[in-house]
Design goal:
The protein is mainly alpha-helical. 78% of the residues lie in helices and 0% in strands. The protein has helices at 6-13, 15-33, 36-93. The longest helix is centred in the middle third of the chain and has 58 residues, at 36-93.
C-alpha cells in the first residue's frame, strides 16, 4: 500500500527536472544559511546590550529578517530532501520489476 502525493509521483517520473530542483534547493539552502548563526548571535548580542534602544534602532526588524531567512532556508532544505528521496526511491526500484518466469516449471533443477 504505497500512497504518494501527486507531486512526489511527478518528481519520480521527471528525473532531470527533479535533479535540477534538488540542485536549486541545495544551493538555496547553502546561500540562505551561510553565516546565519553568526548573524543571529550578533543580533542577539546587540539587542541584549542595548535593550529597548537596540530594538528601536532596527534590531527587531533585523531579527525578523533573519528569522524569515531561516524559514526560507528550511523550505529549500525540504525541497532538497523531497527531491533526494524521490530520486533515490526511483533509483532503488528502477531495476526491480517482477516478471513471471514462464519457464520455471520446465527448467531442470
Amino acid at each position: 500500500m504505497n500512497h504518494h502525493s501527486p507531486l512526489y509521483q511527478w518528481l519520480c517520473s521527471h528525473r532531470l527536472l527533479c535533479f535540477l530542483l534538488l540542485t536549486a534547493g541545495f544551493i538555496g539552502f547553502g546561500v540562505l544559511s551561510l553565516d546565519l548563526v553568526r548573524l543571529v548571535s550578533a543580533n542577539a548580542g546587540f539587542l541584549l546590550t542595548h535593550g529597548w534602544a537596540g530594538l528601536m534602532e532596527g534590531g527587531l526588524m533585523q531579527l525578523l529578517e533573519l528569522a524569515g531567512k531561516a524559514l526560507a532556508a528550511m523550505v529549500c532544505y525540504m525541497v532538497f530532501k523531497l527531491c533526494e528521496h524521490a530520486l533515490l526511491d526511483r533509483l532503488a526500484h528502477s531495476g526491480v520489476r517482477r516478471r513471471p518466469d514462464s519457464n520455471a516449471a520446465s527448467k531442470p533443477v
